[in-house]
């Protein structure tokens, strides 16, 4: 999801606006299964971020912590 959001800012914008993940990534070839922890992390990031840049920075940091 990090790579998709970074490559396509409209995905990041839609997620930041609160669109559900399956609607934000509106492409049949890209499925991103998230477990409950991942969804909670995404919700937290959306609540803290005010700009697309902040969203992407927080998303990358969260992915880095998991890896």
Question: Can you give a write-up of this model?
Answer:
By secondary structure, this protein is mainly alpha-helical. It has one domain (2-66). Helix content is 70%, strand content 0%. It is built from 5 helices and no strands. It has helices at 2-7, 9-17, 21-24, 36-48, 52-66. Helix 4 packs antiparallel against helix 5 (52-66). The longest helix is centred in the last third of the chain and has 15 residues, at 52-66. The protein starts with a helix and ends with a helix. The mean pLDDT is 86.
- The total domain count is 1
Largest sheet geometry: none
- SSE order, as H and E? HHHHH
Tally the helices: what do you get? Answer: 5
Question: How far is the first residue's CA from the last residue's CA?
Answer: 13 Å
From the structure provided, what is the oligomeric state, counting identical versus distinct chains? single chain
Overall morphology = globular
Helix content: over 70%
Strand content: under 5%
pLDDT under 50 segments (min length 5)?
none
> What is the CA-based Rg, rounded?
11 Å
Structural class: mainly alpha
How many β-strand runs?
0
Overall mean pLDDT stands at 86
């Amino acid at each position: 999801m990090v790579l998709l959001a970074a490559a396509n800012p409209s995905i990041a914008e839609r997620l930041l606006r609160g669109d559900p993940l399956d609607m934000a990534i509106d492409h049949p070839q890209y499925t991103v299964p998230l477990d409950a922890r991942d969804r909670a992390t995404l919700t937290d990031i959306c609540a803290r971020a005010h700009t697309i840049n902040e969203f992407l920075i927080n998303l990358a940091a969260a992915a880095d912590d998991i890896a």
